[in-house]
Write a structure and sequence with these properties.
16 helices; globular; eleven-stranded mixed β-sheet; alpha/beta
């Protein structure tokens, strides 16, 4: 069976009688088995997916199928799916099965999407390389000696390696966009609040946002159209009307675009990444768009601000995992205090422990004002400056990541180097604006380079349309 790049292609072949949903599921299941060494999936819902495929085939035959009929989806192991294991790739949730389904997942199922399995990720979505999972590293399908990015590494590799059509992940500071860049696929984070977070395991609640990893912008648009919108189970979900994103993907407008000069002058930016993104900039300029350099004076403060705030929120959010109510419980305890201490020490991995300790420190009475309060003030400055730029420019463009996929183990002993892998993605997360990463070429080693675009809050229609236009231009020129 040929490799499909969009649901549109799949639906065309289904309509022509060339394939069925069952054929598709069996194809992906075979690929998952053949590429098991990539470690992208923690669990595959084999029989369940085949059964659901037969149901959807029947609906297609009767003309009653939903918008996502034919779409085979993997879900990151931080999204609740009733009756299925949910572990956030952590030992501390051993044996736990979800009692309910996340709102986003429920909406996918209502439109006849077929969920094929749950995907590996960094433990509690904390990481930029998928090396912190309790279930082992995920490997980049382009070069298995390299990381796939994180935290949604398994989700990105599953799409990259044709193990499913699309994946649903979560993006706290770039965890959908950065692995998409490393794996040569599309990674889309909508405006904060555009999608309900009900049923998403919390890392940092004021940052977490469900996002999509796809091969085409059109699939990302359709997924957003299905899952976005108000939700009675999540008071932080926006009540704004949900446009028909999938019908708004054409544009012939000439835009005003800003490229952040500071990003391109950053000493950590790989020369080939810089060349590729500047090449896209010139292509847009040649095509009649107004492209100008802009100043963003807070680039050096983005990463520390992000990690102070997210570790503080993580310290609070992860307090519930104590061995008392559910999940892993240490067997070597003598009293309640030792139950808490040993369960958390044995259940959480090193990266999660590091972030809990950092978060507890910045929230402590002696350091709260010096770190947490100050970081909140800087976040406001970052948001205000980003919004100010986006009032003048339709889009901001910059690299998704400063390098292509690095070697497994290369940064594992250097947390600061690992955290700096997020330097270009956390701005959109701090500001709460929508952002997308699309493939923009490859380096001399054949590793993917990602181009990132940001726009104003709730302007996803123009972001998706422009991204679709750029992808078409890059494909034609290539």
């Amino acid at each position: 069976m040929r490799q499909y790049n969009s649901l549109h292609d799949i639906r065309t072949d289904i309509a022509n009688g060339q394939i069925t949903c069952r054929n598709l599921v069996e194809h992906y299941l075979q690929n998952i088995k053949e590429k098991a060494e990539l470690n992208a999936f923690l669990e595959v819902f084999e029989q369940e997916a085949i059964t659901q495929a037969d149901i959807v085939d029947h609906k297609i035959a009767n003309g009653t199928a939903g918008k996502l009929a034919g779409m085979i989806i993997g879900i990151k192991d931080v999204l609740a799916y009733k009756g299925h294991s949910l572990q956030a790739s952590s030992k501390i949730l051993d044996g736990f099965k979800s009692l309910y389904t996340a709102s986003a997942v429920e909406r996918l199922l209502q439109e006849d999407a077929i969920i094929i399995g749950r995907q590996n990720c960094d433990e509690f979505a904390m990481g930029a390389s998928n090396e912190s999972s309790a279930f082992g590293n995920v490997l980049n399908a382009d070069d298995t000696s390299r990381v796939p990015g994180g935290s949604s590494g398994g989700s990105a590799v599953a799409v990259q390696a044709d193990l499913c059509l699309v994946s649903i992940g979560s993006d706290t500071g770039g965890s959908v966009r950065q692995p998409a860049a490393f794996c040569g696929v599309v990674g889309f984070k909508p405006t904060y609040s555009r999608i309900s977070r009900y049923g998403l395991i919390a890392y940092a609640s004021s940052f977490d946002q469900i996002g999509f990893i796809t091969k085409s912008v059109s699939d990302a648009a359709l997924l957003l159209e299905v899952v976005a919108g108000k939700d009675g189970m999540d008071s932080t979900a926006s009540e704004r009307e949900v446009p028909a994103y999938s019908e708004l993907l054409s544009t012939d407008k000439k835009y005003k675009i800003g490229y952040i000069r500071d990003c391109f002058e950053n000493e950590g930016l790989d020369a080939e990444v810089k060349e590729a993104i500047l090449g896209v900039k010139e292509m847009l300029k040649d095509d009649g768009h107004q492209v100008e350099a802009v100043e963003f004076p807070y680039l050096d403060y983005i990463v520390p601000t992000y990690y102070i705030l997210t570790t503080a929120e993580a310290s609070s959010n992860l307090g519930r995992y104590d061995g008392v109510k559910y999940g892993f419980r240490s067997g070597n305890v003598t009293d309640l205090t030792s139950l808490y201490k040993k369960t958390r020490a044995e259940g959480f991995g090193h990266e999660v422990q590091r972030r809990i300790m950092l978060g507890t420190f910045v929230l402590s009475a002696d350091y709260y004002d010096a770190y947490y309060t100050k970081a909140q003030k800087v976040r406001r400055l970052i948001k205000e400056k980003t919004d100010e730029l986006l009032q003048e420019y339709d889009f901001l463009i910059l690299p998704t990541a400063p390098t292509t996929a690095f070697k497994i183990g290369e940064n594992i002993e250097n947390p600061l180097a690992m955290y700096l892998a997020d330097i270009f993605t956390v701005q959109a997360s701090l500001a709460g604006v929508p952002a997308i990463s699309i493939p923009a070429g490859r380096d001399a080693n054949g590793l993917s380079i990602g181009l990132q675009l940001m726009t104003r809050s709730f302007e996803e229609p123009q972001l998706l349309a422009f991204s679709n236009y750029i992808m078409d231009k890059i494909t034609v020129e290539a």
